[in-house]
Write a structure and sequence with these properties.
By secondary structure, the chain is mainly alpha-helical. It has 15 helices and no strands. About 75% of the residues lie in helices and about 0% in strands. Helix 1 packs antiparallel against helix 5.
């Protein structure tokens, strides 16, 4: 997976139809996951009310979902190695749709808890399989395109949040709201098709450096990107999982207006991610990371002190704009550590993802349950400032001099390298 600054060459490694189709399918799965997550996040107050759950109980359910997602990530890794990412993507998205139905119609708290756990397992499997496929597609393109996939995730989140708000305004119960989301996610899953991406010869300059060939050193180099991802998901889970409850409980927004903060947050991420690949190519990843961290910090501070819910909606949009590029940049940088097996690195990177969600959702929910939602947004604001110091780790490695490559290999210059999907199918 590459995010080369200044690389603008068209994809050359496979036939155009297969590559475009693979990119479209990958974006569709990102969109399905974004819609599913939005469905769960924007129905928190309604599910609490239907099942008679307290804020503490809902926080416990969120934590259980996150732990299940971590387990699902490693289960997904095993499935990807056995069957390839595309079948896993399809099965996991269909499972997520089924879990949404179970959440919607669960007759009691125990059944709802099991449904949330099932959703978490599906979420983790989607994460590792779709990011593996995205890494493969990006390397075939030979330029930074990963942010466009995350833009699809965010755009679907906006649509799903607006769907929740619109259906709630019509007075529909949460069962019908979640059923509508489940149908949407299932329809997206049914469009997933395999577009084979044949392997191409890899160049010696693309092979891992000697220290990258040692697993322990790879994981040590993964830590800075993992820390950034952790903080990004602390921010993301704080805004995504609890902004609806924050607007409803603290800022007195109606159930119809409360999901608008989530929609605005995802709209900000769509905007940021739509331009992130271009900015990476123009100014480089470190500058993008520094700017993104500062914008997110200011926006979260504004969210913490918002006097009313319309101000919070604007601040949430700006927070999404700031945090947008951090996750795809982390995934791209981490994938370059093991270009021969990106799914292995990405499954471990997901640990930081879920720790961030666990900390963000757990801490924010706990603070919210005691009436301190504003503090829950002030803490991630401070963490976002710290990320400025990590920008240097995103500096692209200088390409190997042509003379050195010539002396290290014989034969004609290879074409652009590509990651081969692990497993029997690609």
């Amino acid at each position: 997976m590459t995010a080369s600054v200044g690389a603008t060459a068209p994809p050359r490694s496979v036939s155009g139809g297969s590559l475009v189709g693979a990119r479209r399918v990958t974006a569709t799965v990102f969109a399905a996951q974004g819609a599913a997550v939005a469905a769960v996040s924007t129905t928190v107050p309604a599910v609490e009310s239907r099942l008679g759950l307290s804020d503490v109980a809902m926080t416990a359910l969120t934590i259980a979902l996150t732990l299940a997602a971590g387990a699902g990530s490693f289960a997904g890794l095993a499935a990807v190695r056995r069957s390839g990412p595309v079948p896993v993507m399809r099965a996991a998205v269909l499972t997520a749709a089924a879990a949404l139905l179970f959440v919607a119609w669960a007759p009691a708290r125990a059944a709802a808890s099991a449904a949330y756990v099932l959703f978490g397992l599906a979420l983790g499997a989607i994460d590792v399989s779709v990011n593996t496929r995205a890494a493969t597609v990006e390397r075939h393109y030979g330029r930074s395109i990963l942010s466009s996939f995350y833009a699809a995730w965010s755009a679907a989140g906006v649509a799903a949040a607006l769907l929740t708000a619109g259906v709630s305004r019509l007075g529909w119960p949460v069962q019908y709201v979640l059923t509508a989301h489940a149908v949407l996610v299932a329809l997206l899953a049914l469009t997933v098709r395999l577009h084979a991406l044949r392997p191409v010869p890899s160049s010696s300059s693309d092979r891992p450096a000697p220290d990258e060939a040692v697993p322990g050193r790879v994981w040590a180099r993964l830590v800075p990107f993992g820390v950034v991802l952790l903080v990004a998901y602390v921010v993301d889970s704080t805004v995504a999982a609890w902004s609806t409850a924050y607007l409803h409980h603290t800022l007195a927004a109606s159930l119809a207006a409360a999901p608008l903060a989530y929609a605005a947050y995802q709209a900000g991420t769509v905007t940021g991610r739509a331009g992130a690949d271009l900015m990476v190519r123009r100014v480089g990843p470190p500058a993008v990371v520094r700017t993104a961290a500062l914008v997110a910090a200011v926006a979260l501070a504004g969210l913490a002190v918002a006097p009313s819910w319309p101000y919070a909606v604007v601040a949430a949009c700006c927070a999404g704009l700031g945090i947008a590029a951090l996750t795809p940049l982390c995934v791209a940088a981490a994938g370059r550590l093991r270009p021969d097996a990106p799914e292995t690195v990405l499954a471990r990177l997901n640990v930081f993802n879920y720790v961030g969600v666990l900390v963000g959702a757990g801490a924010s929910g706990g603070l919210g349950a005691t009436g301190h939602f504003r503090i829950a947004y002030a803490i991630p604001a401070a963490l976002a400032v710290v990320l400025v110091a990590t920008a240097r780790f995103f500096r692209p490695t200088a390409p190997e001099p042509p003379q050195a490559r010539t002396t290290r290999r014989a034969g004609p210059a290879p074409v652009l390298p590509a990651v081969v999907d692990r497993g029997r199918r690609s």
